[in-house]
Write a structure and sequence with these properties.
205 residues, single chain, seven-stranded mixed sheet, 36% helix, 9 helices
Length: 205
């Protein structure tokens, strides 16, 4: 995989003014972004998140997943720390693409869970890859992280490319009546680390 750095600009957000670093995968043509806030010292464990694109959750406010809630909370946490990063990776629908994601949603509307829907369409449950993270992290000066995730695969992905994960920071937000089954499937079939408290929170809508 050949990841090429393109440019950096400022990105004002409700949580602060981030820097946005653009990267291109020269093999696939996909474009990825790293958001950073603050200055990073060598060997410092930086608070951060790997976030795969979710148009429905990130931009269209979908309640079917927790993606948009996780992205916003990650940005807020970074702003409160005054320092951190987000790798925003263009691999919609766990790597199956937007239109196939809509097909999977159609199957879910008929009763399938998120894993079953992907498999019925001929895909693996999770087809995301993380080869691009090392050149992106190297460019922004990160070699050690405090990773905001519930997904053990992301911890392993960091470790596999030589990035030390000093701490996994849980990111359990956004539960509501539309995504409760989705969250349970992520926990029971995809191995995401979710606490019982998250599932038993009756105050969530």
């Amino acid at each position: 995989m050949s990841i090429k750095y393109i440019a950096t600009s400022k990105l004002p957000t409700p949580w602060g003014v981030f820097e946005m670093h653009g990267f291109e995968d020269e093999e696939s043509g996909k474009e990825h972004v790293a958001l950073t806030l603050g200055q990073f010292e060598p060997e410092q464990a930086i608070l951060g998140r790997i976030h795969s694109e979710c148009l429905t959750g990130d931009a269209l406010f979908s309640l079917r997943c927790d993606c948009g809630f996780q992205l916003q909370t990650a940005m807020q946490n970074i702003a409160e720390q005054g320092q951190g990063f987000i790798l925003y990776l263009r691999q919609e629908g766990r790597g199956i693409g937007l239109l196939n994601k809509i097909r999977a949603y159609e199957l879910q509307d008929a009763g399938a869970n998120t894993v079953e829907a992907n498999e019925r369409l001929g895909f693996e449950a999770d087809m995301r890859k993380y080869d691009m993270i090392l050149p992106m992290l190297s460019k922004i000066g990160v070699s050690k992280v405090r990773l905001m995730t519930n997904n053990p695969r992301k911890v392993v992905a960091m470790q596999n490319v030589g990035i030390e994960v000093e701490e996994r920071v849980p990111l359990q937000v956004g539960k509501n009546r539309y995504n409760e089954q989705y969250l349970k499937t992520k926990s029971t079939q995809l191995g995401h680390m979710m606490s019982e408290h998250h599932f038993n929170d009756e105050t969530a809508d």
